[in-house]
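=== RUN LOG ===
request id: a7f3
mode: sequence -> structure
chains: 1
length: 436
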Amino acid sequence: MSSSTEKDWFGHPRGLTILFLTEMWEMFSFFGMRAILVYYMTKHLDMNQEYASLVYGAYAAFVYFTPVFGGMVADRWLGKARAVVIGGATMALGHFMMSWEALFYPALCMIALGNGLFLPSLASQIEGLYREGDARSKSAYNIYYVGINLGAFMAPFVCGTLGEAYGWHWGFAAAGFGMLLSLVIYLAGRRYLPAEPMRGPAARAARPPMDRAARDRFALLIGIAAIVVIFRGAYEQVGNTIALWADTGINRQLGSGWTIPMTWFISIDSLVVFAFTPVLVARWARLARRGIETPLLGRMAFGAAIVAASYVALGLVAGWNEAHGTRASWVWLAAWFVVFTIGELYILPTGLALFGRMAPEGFRATSIATWFFAGFFGNLLAGGLGTLWSQFAHGWFFVLIGGVSALSAVLLYILCLRMGDVEKHATVGAQAMLSR
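=== RESULT ===
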């Protein structure tokens, strides 16, 4: 654990900077590849839209499935550091394999398998940087999330631009180099990270018995994960049908002779995170000083409702332009990303906070992996919904997706009413995570 007398970087343990930079470059590689994946399948591999959506959904689902087993392997056998290194090297190899058409499917499998070890093992090291009661831990996940979005922001500009301008293989290669840089940073800063916890039979014997309070916490987490599956069916359309609409339904002409690259729109999400995270954190802090503590589940429900409203509004825009035989202005898509991401800031970081901070010692990687496991079923749902893109008018399709997100908002609100006391008693101080 980090001591308060140790030298800090930017007011936090030095290990947080290492984790921040490691995750930043891993996200650069992950989102860089994701930004061009659908375009690569439909434009280079000549897949039809329905099949490409299914492949995209299956890959994204597998990415969120493997961390369940990767987290268990890290907690029980490998340890977090070995899991990060092995997982990162496997992901880098997969990104480079994407440069060969014949290795397309094996490459996707390699990236997903490596991600299973890497993703939960890196994030689960944050808590170990702080002593119990260290007030700085309340903003640690916020800082870590900025790293995630900084990598995601850079990725479309680099990988997307290289892919569109010079060939998709150059974009995949750039993603591979980003993953290698992530590994180098992690290995160079390993001495600043927390020591590996005890594993094996002795560690299991030292764990406190499962009491009713712990069972209630796990029941709450399982309920949240189940509802987030529905939400992700809507949320994960960003890299799928939203990307397709940016290509065919948007007028991306800016000035005379220059067209905004399709992949650049995805970076708006990260820009909104940078701009609005401090605003929301300050607002929640003011409310807390006044003694107003809104339940985290209530915030998640509010975020899902915002996302639902954004899709319905997008459906109205798409429907109007379809009826008049025109393309929508790129401004509408940019505005949609702003509203959509504000909703994201209310729901996804909050959920990650609950799973990270409520986990029993020795199960942190497994618990965080369970949060990501909701993404497995959510992406399968998103891929299935994406197949309707070619069967529905695009305006009605977006309204349907808005309805999916609205359903998750209602269910989260009901869960808040029924299990709010469990959250209140189990997550004192969990506000740290809500500002993702």
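=== NOTES ===
The beta strands are 8-9, 12-13, 250-251, 328-329.
The chain has 14 helices and four strands.
=== END ===
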